[in-house]
Every structure is written in structure tokens, then in C-alpha cells.
Amino acid sequence: MNNLSVSPNSHSSFWVKNMFVAASILYGTLPVGGISLLQAQVQTFESYPYLQKAYKEEKKKNWPEVQALMEHLLSREADNKTAKTLLIRAFLGQNKYKEAEAMAEKVSSDPEGSQQLQNIRTTMLSKGLVQENVLSSWLKKSKDNDKTQLINAYIHRLASTQNPDVALNWLEKNYSQNDSRALRKTRSVLAEKCNKNDVVIDALSPLLASHQLGRDDLRRLGMAYINNLDPVTIDNLLPFVSRPEDKKLLATAFVFKAIAQKKGNLAETWLKHWENIIGHSSDIQEMQWNLAVANNNVPEIIHLSGSLRKPCLDTVEVLADRDADAARKMLRSCDIGEQPKAWLYLAERLQDQVALENHPLSSPWEKQRRLVLARIYVKKHQEEKALQILPLLYPDIDIILARALLLEKHNRFREATIARSEIYKLNPDTDSLDHLTYDQVNAEEYTELLQTVSEHVSRSFSRHYTLLPLSVQDRFINSLSKNMPLIQKWQASKTEPLLASLDYKHRAIFVGNVIPHISSDQEISNLCRMLPPHESNPDPDGDTALGHCAMAQHRPGEAAIYFSEVQRERSDIWPVLVYALSAAGDTSKALEVWREYGQIVPSESLATVLARDALQEKDFSSLRKLIPDLTSDIPDNDILKAKLALHDGEERIALSLASHVMASNPSIDQTMAAIQIADKAGNYDQALNWLQSIWEKYPDNADLKLEYGMRVAGLPERKKRLQALPLLKDSSKLQPNNIKIGESLAWLFLADDDRPAAMRQLEQLISLPQNFALTKEDQKQQVQQRYMWRRTHADLSRRDHITLASIWSPAGIGEVVGNNQLSSSRRGVGQNMQMGWWDHAISDSLLTRGKGLAVYGRFFIDGPGRTEYAAYLGGAAGVRYKPFSRLNLNLYAEVFDQYTRYSLLASSHHKYPTKGQNSNTVDMMIRASASFFDQGDFRNDWREDRSHWNERFLYLDGAWWVHKEYFQGVARYQQGHSWKLPINQPQTIMPYGFGQFSSQNNNHLFREDFRAGAGIRWQYWFNETPFNAYRSALTVNIEYQRGLAGSLYERANGVLFSVGVRL
User: Which residues form the Bacteriophage N4 adsorption protein A C-terminal domain (predicted)?
Assistant: First the structure.
């Protein structure tokens, strides 16, 4: 059977079952009515594997699997009770109480199922999973005992989750008329927790006569009667109490309740009644003793204490609050024995001086006896007796402490300091130090206080870092001002631990007190190092210290802030404030403070500072007031006077004073001031001589070398400028990122014809990181400056320039009909020209100086109309020379050749030679061109720092053909405004206007043309590298020309279109 499949749909299971039934019928094995039994056996056979599997999973606590198995089994065998039971367990194991309850209700027909259902519902109620309406429906279907159990579970849940009052109110509201014993007991338990005695009595008293109350119920009912102080009900209850100890408990509780309610007569009456019942006993005496204590019956307390043999000290403690004299009398008769602590406590409580004086104790209680007795003496104003019993040399710190306290109380501080010193020696902690310094201040022993604190700090600092108590810090700082000589004698090694033991406020005050008495900058620096700079302190002394520290550490701005705070409370601080403000650069505020205090000058050094400030602010009126306070023949003073003379226009006097300064072995700063005076007086040579002299005196001074080099680099003579080259090279090594040095070096290299070095220097400048700390405007200038370096580098890096252009003009010059003769018909029909230009520089020295010598070649292809091309072919080769660096003038000399193709012109409506005739000429051309007004802000160049700019030029060009004696001239002025296109490419668009004059002179036939127009130009810049700006540009122009006068083009109007690329 174990080898058969257990699948409910398997073929084998179906075959076995039917085979078994069929065989039974065939062989007559089934009795009449036995079919049901047979089916039950078959069902058991089929359900066994599922149940076996479910039991195994139950042991593993695999409740979902158990649930799945049993649900499947019940789907086949709906009445399988074992499956239902296991399913209920599976639901409970998964906390599915509602499903478990529903299933249990289906099997509740038998006692076992009913109990299981009851248990599940009870659990659900205790867990708070059931609402009151569900409980009501359950109660309607439940038996009495089950109802009580369910109600108890519900109210216990209410009591635990909310409070007993809620549970009791619910029970009273819904089941107050229920007389079941269980519910009454439940009501009594809840009522006891709620201190509702009447409800307890109402619930339990009906059950008393029928003996249905247990021991706890009787105790509960008895305590309710006792709380109501009803002796009659207690009498009625006692016969039902079987155990003597329970009766004693109730009787004792009644007595104590009556005593607590201050009903002594009731307690006494009940006690006598109780004594008549059980007879005289120690229990009765104990209750009588308690009653006597409650009634403050001292004789009875003493009598009963003796009878009960109560401890003597316990009786004394009871009597202490009722009759002190009786208590003292009994205390003196008590045996101290092993309770000296209790005896001392009672003796001090009763202030029993006699007992303390006549009962010496063994150690360590003798010390406590002395302390207690001393306190009693002090209370009775017997201080001398107290001091006698507290000797100074007693080997105990508590005794000495008591002596010190006694002396402090009576303002005997000099004697107290002796006691406190002994305490400090025995226990050198901060608390002992605090009390000792307190007594020293009151005894005016300031020197001893400073010495004590110093020694304490030195000793404790060697072990660990701790701050002194604030009170000790206050006393130390206050005593400091009264004993400055001691501070001056202190060693530096004591200062650091002392400062470390003070908080910030007291540390600042200490530094402020000490700094004025210290002359060493190093010691001041060491002191200030212990004073953090970023903490605020409202105390004037502390702010003064912080200000002095800031000045000593070269932070005058911070010092000025501190001194300004102090000035609000101390006016004598203003000179120091002036020094700080001046050093911080706030010269106007320094002068304002000086004027605020009546323009008083307490010292010449302050006058010098104020004079410098007045000069800085160009307040020459104040400077004149301060000059008389300045001693003559002092370089700094003479410089101030010289600058005043400059302001007054007396350059000769200023130079005389500056020369006097230079003759007095001046410092570097004084020399630079004299040089500045010479510059402003216009004597640049003298300034340069003085600068050279001071540099020769201090050749290793980098600043002087740089200043001298920059000045020499700015001289107009090239040879003198080159003297700055080695100086600026040295300065560049020290300041490789200095832009001014780098630029000056680049220009000097150019002046020295060293093009590679100039390019390297420009590359170094271009490679410098961008300074993002600048303002937005300065950053734009920095970007444009970098672009100009790249532009210069690009100009130096190339020798060859190529230009290609195509021009379509509205009309050309008069037609050539042969032998260079012009046709009488001069009306132009338009012109197109394509041209190219190659230029090669051949001189480095000229190139680096902004000049130039180059060879070039050019060609052009010209046509007389818009559809006819290459009627004229021409080419030239020559030399170009740019003689000036600051003037854009170019001189040309070239060999020019023009080739005319008559065959091409034959198709024209003009009269030309017959087809097949050709002519060509070779001539020498001399040409000059110049442009003006096109530099600086009006140049035709890309701008990195702008989005739009102005452009203009005046272009002059004249050419002379030597052999032909033919002259052409052009003058054109053009002005426009360029805008960058809003794209990520370097493109611009520029509308412009122009005026142009042209002239020709051929064989003394002079023709001219005046015209004006407007156009638009598009430019695209390209071909850049990290070190080279855009080296190429594509330009497209469209312009409208209007003839105004002249015979050259007969004032013809038209549109010109041109395309050009510069490579």
C-alpha cells in the first residue's frame, strides 16, 4: 500500500479502490449495510498519506503546508474530523484566528470541538481581535459557564489595555444583574483595583451566607469593610474566617486603618473588643503600642516598649518627636553597643550636649562625635569650645575642615587660611584650592594666592590639562593687578601652563595685564599664541589684550575692531586705535578718531602716522597741521614735507627735500618714496638714477631689480631698453606667473630681434592659468589680453600669407581698344575679377620690430562684364617694404604683365580688334598704400571680450606704371559696426557705409569718380591653435554704390559682390 501513488487523480488509486469494491461484491464479502463501512475504510486508506505528511509538517511548524494538505483532503473528504482539527491548528499556528474560529464552529457539535471553539474565542478576546457585537453574538449561543469565561476574557483585555475602571464600568453596565458566582468575583476583583469598596461589598456579600467565598474573597470583602470602618460587618465576617492568621490580619488592619483615619477611640474600642475575643497577647500589646504612638501617649509608649522589649534607640527615635526631654533621658541610658552611628544621629537630632560630652567613642566614630559636638557648640555660640574640640593638628581632614568653616563663619580668614592650607596639603584638588584662595583674598594675601595658583597649575599641568575653577580664575586675575612685580619675575615656563588653565575670558585679561610689562616680541608672541583669535570677549581688558596680540602678529584690522570696542568704555585707548586703523589701511577712520579727540598729538610717532594717513587721504589741510610736530632732517618726515610741497606746486622744494633724503643713507622704502617724488616732479632721469643707485646697493633685492628692470624696459631708446633684458629674466625666474614681467620680456625679445625667444615667452604667457578671482570685467580683459598674445604669436610664427578674392563690380574702367587707347565710349557694362596674392617675409629683424621686407607674387583674371571671364590675364612679382612700425604704410615695386585676349572680346557689342589678334605688355609698377584710423578699438580683428564693436579705416592706394606713364589712385573711408553671430563659431556680421574717390591718368587724360554707398559684410575666422589666434578669415561683402560725380564711371550705380579668403 505504501508503494501506491497518493495523487487523488492518479489512475492507480482509482483502480485499487474499484478493484477492492468489486472483489468484495463478487465473493460476497460485503455484509448487508456494509457498503458505508467499506467506503470509510477506503477513505481512511486514501487520507492516510495526507495526514501522515501533515503530522510531519506540523512537527516542523510548517503551517502553510499543513493548511494546504488539509484543505486539499477536505475537498475530497469534507467530514474528515482529523483533517479539520489539523487545519484548525494550522490556522492558529499562522495567527489566522478568524479562520480557525470558523472551522472550529463547524466541529463544535461534540464536547471536544466545543471546548476547542471556546478556547479559540477566549484567545481572540484576550488578544483584542473581537468587537463587542461579535462577543454578543457568541454569548447568545453559549452556555452559562462558557459565557462567564468569554466575559472574563473580554474584561481582562479591557483592564490590561485601558484600565480597570473601563472594564468595571462595562461589566456593571451589561451584567450588573448577573448573579453568577464567577462574575461576582470578577466584579469584586476589578472593584478592589478601582478602590470601590461598595461595589466589592455588593458583589461578594450575597455569597457570604452560602459559604461560596474562598480565602481571597473573604480577605477582599473584609478589607472593603475595614476601609468603610464598619466594626459590625467585621464582627459578622470573622466567624466565616477559618484561619487565625487571617483573623489577626483583619483585626490589625482595622486598628491601623482607624489610627490612620485619626479615630483613636474607635481603634481603642475595637482593640478591647478584640482582646475580649482572643485574650491578652503580645499581638494585642503591639497594637496597643502603635495606638499609643498614634495618640502621642508618652508614658504608655515607654511602658509598652519595656514590656515588648523594644530596642532602646528605637524607642528614643519615637520619643524624639513627642517628648525631647524624655528622649534625652532614655538616650543617656541606652547602651551604644554596635549602633554608634544611630546613637550619634539621635544625639545630634536631640542636641544632647551632655550625652556627647560624656560618651567618647571608638575610632572612627570619635571624629564624628567631635564634629557633632562642635556643631552644637557653634549653635550655642560657644565657638572657643568648638575650636578646642577641633584641634588643627588632629590627623583628620574633616576635623580641620570643620575648624576652617568655623573660622570663616566668624571672618577669621587669616586663621582660616592656615587650616585651608593644611587641607590643601592633604588633598590638593581644585575644591581645596577654591576654598584656600577664597580665604587668601579675604585675608588680602595676594602674593600667597598668586604663588599658590602658580604652584598648583605647574603641578597639575605636568599630569593633565585642566581648567581652574571660575571662582579661582576670578580671584587670580583680580589679585594680579595688585602684585605685578611678581608677574615680571615669573619664568616663561610658568606662563604656558598658567594660560592653559584659564578659560578664554580670563586668559585674555591676563595677557592684557602682562603685555604692557613685557618688552620682548618673542615673549609677546608666545603669550598671544595661547589666545585664539576668533573668540569674542566683551571685557575691555580682554579686548585690549586681543588688540595688542593682533598688532604684534600683524593683524591690524582685527586689532582695530578690538580697540574700537574698548574705546566705548575707555577713551585713553584712542592713540592705540589710531595706530591700528592706520596699519590696517583705514586712514580716513584714523583721522576721524584723531579729530574726535581734539586733534591732540601726544607723541611724534603718532604725528608721523597721522601725517601719512592725511597724505593718503589727500587731506592736505590736516597734513599742514601735523607738519610742525615733525622733526626735520628725519627722512620719513622730509618725505612727508616733500609730498606736501608737490601738492602746493613747489617741485623744486620737493626735489630738494627728496635729495636730502637720498643723502642720508635712506632705507629702501625711503628711497622708493624719493623716486616717486622725482617722478611726480617730472625729473625722470633723476628718479631712474636714484633707483639705479639703490639697486646697485642692494643687488640681491628682487623687488628693486624688478622695479629697475621695468623702468629701463620702458625707455624709448632701443639699446637702453635691451639693458633690462637680463634683469627681467632674473625676475621672471622668481615670479614665473607675473604677467607684466612676461609681457615686457616678450617685447624686449622682439626689440632684440630674437623672434624664437619672443615666441617662447608668449607661449609661456598664454599657458598661464586663468585667474577666476578677478571681477567679471577684469576677466574679460584677461581673455582679450590672452587673445592678443596669441595674435602676436601668430604674426611672428608665419612668413607666408596667401589671399584669394573674387570681385563682381557694377562697372569697370573704359575699354581698351588697342595700343592702350581708351574707347570714346566709356559706359561700363560691369566687371568681374578673380585674384590671388602670395607674400613671403624675408627679414626676421624687421618682422620683430613691426616693420617688414617681403617678396610677393600676384595674379588676376579680369572680365568686362558679368558673364564674360578672363578677357584680361595679368600677373606680377615684386618686393614689399614696410618702413615704419607704428604706421601702416607699404611700398611696392613689381614687374607687371597683362595679357588681353581679343578673341574673347569679339563677341561683345563693343568694337574690338578682329578675332585672332592678341597683345601683351610688360611694365614696371611702383605702388604705395597706407591705412589710417583702423587701430585700437577700430581694428578689423576678432574680439574675445566683446559681443560687438566698431570698425573703420581710411585706405589710400596709388600705383604708377613706369613705361606706360599710367597712374591709378583710390581713397576710401569706411565705417561700420560688427556683431558676433549667436552661434558657437567665430562669425560676425557688419553693416557699413563708405565714401570712395578714384582717379586715373593715362597720357595726361585725367578721369575721376566720387561715390558713396552702404553694404554688409560677413566674416568667418578659422585656423587657430592653442598658441595662435585665428590665422585665416573668409569674408563676403555685398554693397550698393551710388555715383556722385566724376567722369571715370560716368556716375554709374550698381551692386558690388566680393568673396575673399585670407590664408
Answer: 875-1056
| Confidence at residue 14, expressed as pLDDT on a 0 to 100 scale | 39
Given the candidates 2.30.30, 1.10.3470, 1.25.40, 3.40.30, the CATH classification of the domain at 721-798 is: 1.25.40
Tell me if residue 267 falls in helix, strand or coil: helix
Number of Cβ within 10 Å of residue 238's Cβ equals 16
DSSP code, position 427: S
Q: Is the pLDDT of residue 831 over 80?
A: no
Q: What is the DSSP letter of 482?
A: T
In this prediction, residue 463 carries a pLDDT of 56
| Range among 281-295, 709-723, 911-925 with highest mean pLDDT value | 709-723
Q: What is the pLDDT of residue 915?
A: 38
Residues of the chain with CATH 2.40.160: 801-818+827-905+919-1062
Q: How many CB atoms lie within 10 A of CB 492?
A: 12
Q: Read off the pLDDT of residues 400-430 as tens digits, 9 standing for 90 and up.
A: 777 778 788 888 888 888 788 878 888 888 8
Contact 49, 5 (CB under 8 A): no
Query: Are the C-beta atoms of residues 398 and 367 closer than 8 Å to each other?
Result: yes
Packing angle, helices 684-697 and 668-680, rounded to 10? 170
Given a cut of 90, whether residue 525 has pLDDT beyond it is no
The distance between the two most distant Cα atoms of the chain, rounded to a whole number of Å, is: 176
Q: Is the pLDDT of residue 139 over 90?
A: no
Instruction: List, in sequence order, the alpha helices (H) in 94-196.
Output: 97-106, 111-126, 132-141, 144-161, 164-175, 181-193
Specify the higher pLDDT residue, 1053 or 392.
1053
Residue 822 pairs in a beta bridge with 816
Q: Residue type at 255?
A: V
How far apart (Å, rounded) are the C-alpha atoms in residues 271 and 687? 126
- Residue ranges matching CATH 1.25.40 in the chain: 47-164, 570-629, 721-798
DSSP-derived pairing of the beta strands 821-822 and 816-818 = antiparallel
Cα 288 to Cα 271: distance, rounded to the nearest angstrom? 8
Residue 919 has pLDDT above 90, yes or no: no
Of 88, 46, 95, the residue nearest 67 (C-alpha): 88
CATH number of 47-164: 1.25.40
Grid coordinates given for 394: 588632629
pLDDT recorded at residue 367: 76
pLDDT value, residue 674: 86
pLDDT(808) > 80? yes
How far, in Å, are 22, 38, 210, 287, 986 from residue 35 at the CA level? 11, 5, 58, 84, 106
pLDDT value for 41: 45
Taking alpha carbons only, the member of 571, 149, 96 closest to residue 135 is: 149
Write down the number of H helices and E strands in the chain.
50, 14
Q: In sequence order, which ranges of 867-1015 are alpha helices (DSSP H)?
A: 902-905
Work out the number of other CB atoms within 10 angstroms of the CB of residue 509. Answer: 26
Residue 322 is placed in which grid cell?
513627642
Mean pLDDT over 510-539 rounds to 70
Mapped onto helix, strand or coil, the DSSP state of residue 674 is: helix
**Measuring CA to CA, how many Å separate 600 from each of 477, 585, 933, 945?**
34, 21, 59, 53
Q: Is 801-818+827-905+919-1062 a CATH 1.10.3470 domain?
A: no
**Contact criterion met (CB below 8 Å) for 690 and 678:** yes
Percent of the chain with pLDDT over 90: 13
Q: What pTM, to 2 d.p., does this model score?
A: 0.47
Q: What is the pLDDT of residue 40?
A: 43
All three cell numbers of 596, joined, read 574726535
The residue type of 444 is E
**Helix (H), strand (E) at residue 437:** helix 430-442
Residue 941's φ and ψ, nearest 5 degrees, are -155, 160
* DSSP helix, strand, coil percent of the chain (3-state; round to 5): 55, 15, 25
DSSP at 317: H
- 570-629 in CATH: which number? 1.25.40
Query: Is 737 within 8 Å of 768 (Cβ atoms)?
Result: yes
